[in-house]
Write a structure and sequence with these properties.
Elements (H helix, E strand, L loop, with lengths): L13 H8 L26 H5 L7 H9 L4 H69 L4 H18 L12 H11 L6
Helix pairs in contact: 3-4
Length: 192
Amino acid sequence: MSAPTMTPRNGVDQAAAVRAANGRPAPAQPMPMGIRVTKGPGAPQATEAASAAPSTPRGAEELLRLAAGSDLARTRHLGEKIASLVADLAARIDVEQAQRQEREAAEAKRRELAEAEATLASQLAEVRQKLRSTRDSTASVTASGGRREGAERRAEIRAWAVANGYEVAERGRIAERVVQAWAAATGSEVTA
């Protein structure tokens, strides 16, 4: 024999009425996977408890305040732990922002110095070009007085070499390394 079936009478499911009278909830209705009905005739109805709950989410500060005042030790402990983590997070973010500002300031200073270096290099190139053109024009004018100028220059190089610890003879040829050192120290060019 088959089990008796209960049919709704006056729109009331008799099986649900019997379960409710015995204090047992109705079994959960399976929902098709991925489909949730939120409105319409088959949608779950909101209970009074759900409608009485606040609909706006609570902020972290409010939750921490409520946890600190809780009667349950576990809730208070969890609130303290979360407050500690929030404080650690805030400190890390502050450090990261300070480091980012330092990096940006250092990069700005590097760019500024690079621009200054390029400007100075350009100015130095202009000065060197002017110096070369001046030497070229004076070299042609002093070609006739070159011996006297050569003797004066050699005397100047010898005096510089002695003052800077190089050994040079009073007469004769001056070593090439001494001439090169003099040229580097005084910014002069050595002519052949």
